[in-house]
Description:
By secondary structure, the chain is mainly alpha-helical. Helix 18 packs across helix 22 (473-479).
Amino acid sequence: MAPSSLDDAFRGNAADFKANEVFSDRDTEWAAAVESVRNVWEAVSAPTFDVEDLESPRRNVLVFYGVGGIGKSTLSEQLRRRFGGDDVAMSHWDVPDPPLPRTVPVFLDLARSTTFDLTEVILAIRLALASHGHRAPAFDLALSRYWEANRAGESLDDYLRARGRLSRISSRLPEQVNELLGEVADNFELPGMVGGLVSQSVSALVKGLRERHDHALAFRCRRLPAILEAEPDLNALSYYPHLLAWDIAQLPPKQALLPVVLLDTFEDIAERGNRENERLINRLVWLMPNVLFVVTGRNRLEWDDARLRETLWHTGAVRWPLLRAETGEPRQHLVGYLSPHDRETFLAQRLISDGLPMIPSEHRRLIADRSEGLPLYLDMAASLFVDLLQSEGTVPPVEAFDRDFEALVTKTFRDLTSDEKLVVRAVSLLESFSIELATAAAGLAHDSAAMCVVERPFVEHDDSGLWPYRVHKLVRSAIRTADFNRNSREPWSDADWRRAAQRAFDAIGAQWRDAADDRRVLVACLCAGLRLARDFSLRLGWLEDAAVDFARDSAVEVIDIGDPPRAVDGTPLPISAAATALAATLSVVASRNSAHRQWVAERLRAILETGDLPAQLREIPMYYIAMCERDLGNFDASMQGMRAVALSGGRLAPDARRGLHHLLRRLGRFRDALEIAEQLGVNGRQQRALGELWWSQGNIALACTSLAVAREQASSNGLSGEAALCQSYLAFAAAFQDRARARVQVDHALELIQKTKVGWAEVLLQVAELVVEAGHDPELPQRVDEVAAAATAVGLTSLAGYARLAGCFHAAVVDSPQLSERARILLRESVNGAEFAYLIEIAYMLTNQDSPSALRSDWIEGQVTAKQRWSGLVTDRRAELAATGRI
């Protein structure tokens, strides 16, 4: 991008300012790639170049970095095609004059969709040489030894065939490797090698070479002996690229070439938390100075930072002088938007006076934040700074830069068609969008305009969300400003905006109904729909049904619709109180899995008191207030709330009836609870209710059967949170009877919980792990204390009681009256009168005793049968311990 008005403002001035590069027609990037090839080739062709020199600085990395969707992967692919001899690719690129040296491109997509495999990366480079008929004897010998040691059951042929992209590069490598082994055996007359056929292992061949002390002379590679003698593990493999670089350097002049390795989506191996894979690539690049590496990714390559020396092997500006250079090639090039750090760096270097930044740091921070990384915004802010400085004669106030620039959208809209402008305006209402959604919101009958829009550089692409596209935040903001709309040749009225919002709202609702069982779709549609309904005062419509679906499935996902819109002067604009109240309700409901139940109940009561929530949706906060009261041990309040929701006949009435079942079970009124459970049906989660009931009777087999059915029903209906909860209950119940099975169930529950983050289920799973280790872990009482305390801290009194019961089970199994007495005393602290008194009864049943409490539960099959079951579980656990010699 040119310096725009700064050219004129500073023409003839000695102050130094710079313009950053912006990805557009890719001509600049092609020129950088061509110059990089020439410079690397010139360096490696010099008589003084030594491929075995491991100390000289490296100048063989070309980097293109920038935000997703800006075209970096396309650039990498086009470079591969051009360096591979395809002159049709990017035909507008200039033909290099004079011609480039012979290049061999290797394209490697490092995306998360494929597991990173160093072997595959190295072999891709080797295969590219094989495809041109070039051999690599030093590397192939080491590879053969590594393969025999680590992949004895898989031939090289099979490995390559199983990896489509490698098999497409060349099929000649296995043949070349076998020829090499045969030639080595013949040339040195090693035993066991006849006519080029290796009848013994590669290890034997290497041993024979070592005994003759002449294998190093055979290849003249000074580090080959050390590599062949080292243990052939992953660490050794990471040094093999040195041998491959050595082999490339030995090619005769007429066959000489320059490999160009294109590493695309580099951010997928350069994670800040774990850089082990980046460490391997760092070493590979360092060991191959006669190869040009073209790295494309979202972040700047940080190898020039010496502070990373403990994380990566080769770092620092001395080792990689061109990675932070402003001139010369190969070096790093920005493609697209800037990171927060680079924004401030750009502004600091954009206007210089006496060697210091002209724009003060406070201004730079605000401008950088407002820019959202858009280079054009930074340039405009710098121009504004100069204009204000010249007109007012003093540094302008920082508030002058808390603004949008109409010119941002003017430049963006300059070459859009009328239909494309409709699409851009419509999708500016959405955080993210798909082509289908964009077309619907714009009111068009065809997708062509939307398809063109998503190719524009101000549209970012990210496949991690439901809708893969988003207009850059700054462009979205500017499009919505009154100034832009007023000065546009095609202005929109308030009614136009509202009609577009309604079209988008309806399209989102249709998408939710088409995929009602997909939790991801539900959450995304809720957030987008609530935002539109709030900002444009739309009728809630389908949001009512979606909200109830969200609330019923153990809601945990964040419902965040951001701040409401404001006018230019900062005053709030009219919004829908109903949509705002519904969004707040769902957000609080989801937070109950991490927040204290008392806080959740208070927030929901406050929402009800506003009167903003429509009458038909008041059952959501009412139901969850009753749930919180139950978890807090407030039985009467919970019972009253559940009855009110059940009698309302609303969509949560079946859930409320199940809530009444839970409360009766807590009171030990098991027969009444069973009668309600048998009437719940699938919508009332009948099978989970039965499973929760049967485990308390000591009937573990029946409980596990019911809970397994409940889990499958939830999964088939797309209720991931409910499925995770049922699986956690299943693990808990199984833990009393079958430890091996319980461990499997615990692992399965962990998988489900990681996808949904159901806090109640997470704590229940911790209790299940306590039961699994009862009798086995002498430290279990301390672990019980920790889990019970954590459950109490977030208001989960029931789980605190379950944890204490696990302590009683452990004490009974180890047959310690002292531990039993302590465990029962602590359990009583979790009992609130009649509520959970049945747990105390179970604690005595475990030791085949009657509870001294006057409270008696209504056991479904009678107290005697319940006692026999619970004491039998203790007996079985003791027998298991005896069989293993533990007691």
